[in-house]
Amino acid sequence: MQRKRPLRLQPEIEHLFWLRLRALKEQGWQFRKASPFRSFLLPFVEHDALLVVQLDNRSSIVRDRLLREAGYTILRFPRADALRNLNAVMDSIRAVLQDRS
What we know:
Number of domains: 1
Oligomer: single chain
């Protein structure tokens, strides 16, 4: 059985995305990966800015409600957008972070 190319690219884009989020540490932002929140794991989160970032369109109504009640903002980006234009995705994240500082 032959693997489809998008399946191989997903881990690569997540790794590259994680490296870009970690680089925001130079600007004072400390992202965490797979951070626990109640009974959930948050894919990428900056707790001081109350910002959760996901690279997919899936959502959990319960988790999203709990996060919003705790003051978090949730940003979702399709993996395809991150593959095509990671700079635009990062610009969107930086814009939210600037509003939070």
